[in-house]
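Why does this matter for the project? Reviewers at the last site visit asked to see concrete outputs rather than summary tables. In response, this paragraph embeds two records directly. Each consists of the residue sequence and, immediately after it, the corresponding structure tokens. Nothing has been edited or filtered.
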Amino acid sequence: MLALRPNCECCDKDLPPESAEARICTFECTFCADCVESRLGGMCPNCGGNLVARPIRPAHLLAKYPASTERVLKRHKACAA
């Protein structure tokens, strides 16, 4: 089950479960679309894998399978602006 992390680990932008802006890699590193396009070149700075749109969990399932509330923020070289 995807964790649905609540923020971009590059700029700390909020990414709620319904956000179409969230991008993830195979390890669920989570970034916003802006950082992926403007800073990361479509590649995860942690694993080097590609970043794709995160699926949106249907609202009626969030009560049973809630999104993570743990924020992850890593200061990657590419994120320093």
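We now turn to the second protein, recorded in exactly the same manner.
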Amino acid sequence: MPATKVTFDCAKCPGYCCTYDRIETKPADIARLAKYHGVTIAQATTRFTKTYTWEGKTERILRHQKDTVYKSVCMFFDTEARRCTIYKGRPSVCREYPDGKKCGYYDFIKFERKHQEDPAFVPNAGTL
């Protein structure tokens, strides 16, 4: 089967996917974070994640930090450079995103940059 050609470039995006409220972390992700940061799994769990409960289900998600472009963003996101600071240690959900050859947000921002005639345009939380 031929390889699927990816039609997006994360390096040209301000990190919209990193603003998702729930960035789930499985036990293997927490172990990866612990190894990446040189801490114990218990320390990584406490420092980097929090418990989130919805519809009777509980999951571990990454903590967030305030952001000037979006309301909040993953705690591991560099808000100045607009890049992930733990790319090699990132959780599985981040590794798999967007799970295809297209990214809807990338398509949106590419369209906006063209029509705004501004190659660096970043819509803020008020324009989404």
